[in-house]
Every structure is written in C-alpha cells, then in structure tokens.
Amino acid sequence: MTTELKTFIGSQFIGKPVLADIEFIPHLEKINDFADTNGLNIFVTSSTRAWNVPVGGAVFTPAKMSNHFIGHAIDMNIKIGGKLFNSDALSNFDSLPPAIQAFITAIRKHPVLRWGGDFGDPVHIDDGLNINIPDIWKQKFPIIQSELNGLTQPGIRTEISPRLLFLTTPLMQGDDVKAIQKKLIEKGFDLGTSGADGFFGQTTANAVIKFQEKEDLEPIDGIVGEKTKKALGL
Ligand SMILES: [Zn+2]
User: Fold this and answer.
1) What is the distance in A from the centroid of ligand 1 to the CA of 123?
2) Of these four, 79, 112, 135, 211, which has the most CB atoms within 10 Å of its CB?
3) What separation in Å is there between the alpha carbon of 130 and the centre of ligand 1?
4) What residue numbers bound the domain in which 40 lies?
5) Residue 156 falls within a domain, yes or no?
6) 217 alpha carbon to ligand 1 midpoint, in Å?
7) Could you tell me if residue 192 is left (phi over 0), alpha (psi between -120 and 50 degrees) or otherwise beta?
C-alpha cells in the first residue's frame, strides 16, 4: 500500500485542484477519460476532506468512514454545452442529456468506481474502498489526514511541513502566502491594489500561472509547491 496526497489535473476537470490519494489517481484518470469520451467537463466541488471540518461553510455530518477522508472520492457538478448540472439536476437520471447518462453509465460499469446517485448522493464518485477493504481505509485515514492538515488546510498554520498554496474557498491566508506574493511583485507580476496581503486569491493565482508559464514550469496549475517556490527563490 502506498498512501500519499497528490494533486490531480485532468483535461476535463475544471474548478478546484483535486487532492487525492496516489492510489485513487488512476481512477481519476479513468473518470477523466469517460468525461472526455462524452464531451463533458467535471467541476469538482470537493475532494479530500479533513475530519470534522465543515466544507465551504456548509454544515455536514461526516459519514462514519467516508472515502473523502482518505482521498478516494470526489463531489462534482457536470458541465456540458455551457450548462452546469448540479445535485438537483443529477438526481433525475432520466431527464439528463444522453452524454451525461453515458458518462454515469460508464462509471457504473467500471469494476470499482461507484456513482453516488445509486445511494442518494448524485454528485459523488468514489471507489468503495471503505466498504470493500475497510482495513486499508483505516490504514490510510491517519496518513491522509496528517498530510492534509500539514499541507492544505486553509487558515491553519503549521511548522511541520510547508503546505501547498492555491486558490480555494475560504482563501488560504498566512505569511507563506505573503512571501510568495512579495516575490511575484519583485519579479514584476501585477497583484493589483491588494498587493501582498497574505490572501491567496484569484489575482495571486493568475500571477502564479503567468510565472509558471514564463519559467516553463510543469504543470502550469497556479499551485505553489516545492518547484514553483524554488523558482521564486524561496
Ligand atoms: Zn461525496
């Protein structure tokens, strides 16, 4: 078993970067393939979640062993022809455009992947690891949660390890954000009137993307990890 939080960028994925366990990445690639085949985009609203922390301010009660806690699930809306299909729209399978029905059918036919619509949660896709191999779920849980706490929790400062910095809701805030903003300004990137305010907002994300393009960094994703930080001179 390998357990490690990774960022996933798919050609058909829009919205927030997907954080997932390395062993769920091949499934995300499959989901991306199904979306590509059917000409639709996946707008991810939630991926790996911290234990007991409300997502986007919404009140939710964590299912006992949710696959979100180990990076083996996503919540998504589907975008096709400029139209976004949310939970309400996705809950009525028969009324969906054929392309979305075909996408969901592909998920259902996959040997491992599950569409949440089959258990009352139509925005959810996971691999059923919590049910199929609960022992592995239990082994992964503390690893993913500690990585998540150290790397990505908005507003939570940690001295243990540098976190990934990217655009999220609520905005990430801290001296680490301010440090990259100062470097971006130094290098001539426009951060607008807010300047180096310590909040990782849209302007900062755009500047990071421009910086990554200029420096030929791969991937160009607006996420500040080790490589981008190094290139910024931090
Ligand atoms: Zn979910």
Assistant:
1) 7
2) 211
3) 13
4) 5-148
5) no
6) 32
7) left
Residue 163 lies in a domain: no
Residue 88 burial by Cβ neighbours in a 10 Å radius (0-12, 13-18, 19+): exposed
Question: How many structural domains compose the chain?
Answer: 2
Based on the fold, state whether residues 191 and 140 are members of the same structural domain.
Answer: no
* 45 lies in the same domain as 127: yes
For the segment 9-37, what is each residue's pLDDT rounded down to a tens digit? 899 999 778 999 999 999 999 999 999 99
125 C-alpha to ligand 1 centroid (Å): 7
Which one has a higher pLDDT value, 185 or 164? 185
Burial status of residue 49 (CB atoms within 10 A of its CB: 0-12, 13-18, 19 or more): buried
| Same-domain pairing of 186 and 73 | no
Of the pLDDT bands very low, low, confident and very high (cuts 50, 70, 90), residue 173 is confident
| 223 Cα–ligand 1 center, Å | 23
